[in-house]
Amino acid sequence: MLSSIEFVRQSLELHLFFARIMKEHSFFLEIGFTERDSDLICKADMFRMEFDQLLADAIFFSNGVVSSSILQSGEIITPFTLKAEMASSYFTGVEIQTNLTEAESVLSGEKLIEANHTLEERVFMLNERAMALVLKLAEFKSWILSGVISCKIFTNNFPLLIDHILREAKFYYHLIERLQNHADINLEKEAYDQEVFWNRIMAEHSKFIRGLLDPTENELIDTANNFGNEFDKLTQEAIKAMDMTLPISEVTEDSLKATIKIKEFKQQGTQGLVDCKIKSIIIPLLGDHTLREANHYLRLLKIFKTGKV
Fold this sequence. Notes:
Layout (H helix, E strand, L loop, with lengths): L3 H29 L5 H25 L5 H5 L8 H12 L5 H8 L11 H33 L9 H22 L6 H26 L5 H25 L5 H27 L9 H23 L3
Helix pairs in contact: 1-2, 1-6, 1-7, 1-11, 2-6, 4-11, 6-7, 8-9, 8-10, 8-11, 9-10, 10-11
């Protein structure tokens, strides 16, 4: 059973990462529809604003509670997040709440030694609210994916990207549900599940980047394609480890090396997008979004390697 302080800390850390991811998913959906589907634009915008509020509440409870390692990992915000938000807002006309990014930039790490009952209760209710909201967003994503595949809806987002963000929503829901049950973390099982999940995510990021780059960006296209192939292979290795035909430690080491490399690629790419140095149809916030996910996965891999949470 998780202690009260660990329940509070892990819940807030989860929301600081994933609530931002969900609000950006809603933004990517919103800007991908055509004028004909103005009702879907409005619905995606509504989800974006609801996740803004969820993130704002998580930030409010987080100061002095969440771990310093999370705040320093680059998974909550990066040095590019604010500029990427400002540029993406300029390009789309969507008002992005950059004040949330500014608030996160001044959060301080763990000072709380023991959680009081009131804080624990409020975080429990925040988790309940998050689960209900994530479930609704997952249903919306699923409905959109079905419409796109059956040619009833057009969007600038790849069908694979919609499926990708649907899986992330379901994963977020599962993690909150586990926290609500105060379930302890089994690091070995966690490594199997997380590495299968995130290696696939990293592979798909590479393929999205490859498909959204200008055809003249040959070197970047080749690099993204190579990362896609490498993480496809790592996904299969993680599945084999889950089936006990390959040691998980070997997969973790390979995944760690590959994730360090793709993080550097995404970091350079996000810098290039923010500075207008890369020809593409990639909205700058998407670059920063994928960088944060790589940073998140990198932190997890380091935990799996050392065996220390």
